[in-house]
């Protein structure tokens, strides 16, 4: 029973995290309907999304203790536990660098949408979504630390979710910044830097 409760909580919290974060990246679109308070509301939505992300994290932690009875995977990887830790560290190091660097370069906009904020600099001059690129793989870090094959496989579900968020955010940023953002998209990669030959076309 506890296993199903935890999994249902994981599913619900993950869904609500997705919905509220998606709502938080559309302040310019909301502004057309409700005015400048859309930016404050977007910040509230982002905070709520963070709460559900924390619940989701707790569900991950609990899963190895309460695995689903229909889980087809072994409870743990067959290799020594230190192998899982090494894999987690290898993933975590570049992810944490991207998280810290992008947060510093985005400043307060990383947490709270701000209409007066100018377009980003720093690492954002190379790629448009360094924070998403650093954040999404952290679910695999958690899964490997927990040594759970099920959670490693399950974490692939977040790839289309994070991509969807980035696409939605870019649509809103075009409304917000207009042609300068379109030009910015032409010269930068979404997740990886563009080659010089690509930026010259």
Overview of the molecule:
It is built from ten helices and no strands. The chain has helices at about 1-25, 25-35, 35-60, 80-105, 130-135, 140-145, 150-155, 160-175, 180-185, 195-200. Helix 1 runs antiparallel to helix 3 (about 35-60) and helix 8 (about 160-175) crosses helix 9.
Features:
Four Helix Bundle (Hemerythrin (Met), subunit A), 201 residues, mainly alpha, 10 helices, 0% strand, globular
Q: Could you give a short description of this structure?
A:
By secondary structure, the chain is mainly alpha-helical. It is 68% helix and 0% strand.
Query: What would the average pLDDT be, to the nearest integer?
Result: 88
Q: What is the percentage of strand-forming residues?
A: under 5%
Count the domains.
Answer: 1
Q: How many helix segments?
A: 10
CATH class: Mainly Alpha
Got a strand count? Answer: 0
- The structural class is mainly alpha
Q: C-alpha Rg, in Å? A: 19 Å
Task: Report how far apart the termini are.
Answer: 58 Å
Low-confidence stretches: none
Largest β-sheet summary = none
What is the CATH architecture descriptor?
A: Up-down Bundle
> Which percent range fits the helix content?
55-70%
Shape annotation: globular
Q: Which series of helices and strands comes N to C?
A: HHHHHHHHHH
CATH topology: Four Helix Bundle (Hemerythrin (Met), subunit A)
SSE layout and pairing:
Elements lengths: L1 H23 L2 H8 L2 H26 L18 H26 L23 H6 L2 H8 L3 H6 L3 H20 L1 H9 L8 H4 L2
Helix pairs in contact: 1-3, 2-3, 4-6, 8-9
């Amino acid at each position: 029973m506890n296993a199903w409760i935890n999994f249902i909580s994981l599913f619900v919290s993950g869904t609500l995290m997705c919905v509220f974060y998606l709502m938080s990246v559309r302040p310019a679109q909301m502004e057309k309907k409700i005015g400048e308070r859309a930016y404050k509301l977007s910040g509230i939505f982002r905070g709520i999304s963070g709460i559900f992300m924390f619940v989701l994290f707790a569900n991950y932690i609990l899963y190895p203790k309460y695995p689903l009875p229909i889980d087809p995977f072994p409870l743990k990887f067959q290799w020594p536990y230190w192998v899982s830790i090494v894999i987690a560290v290898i993933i975590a190091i570049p992810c944490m660098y991207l998280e810290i660097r992008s947060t510093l370069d985005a400043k307060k906009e990383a947490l709270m949408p701000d209409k007066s904020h100018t377009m980003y600099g720093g690492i954002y001059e190379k790629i448009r979504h360094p924070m998403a690129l650093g954040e999404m793989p952290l679910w695999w870090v958690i899964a490997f630390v927990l040594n759970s094959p099920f959670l490693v496989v399950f974490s692939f579900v977040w790839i289309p979710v994070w991509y969807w968020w980035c696409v939605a955010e870019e649509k809103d940023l075009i409304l917000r910044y207009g042609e300068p953002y379109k030009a910015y998209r032409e010269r930068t990669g979404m997740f990886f830097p563009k080659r010089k030959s690509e930026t010259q076309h």
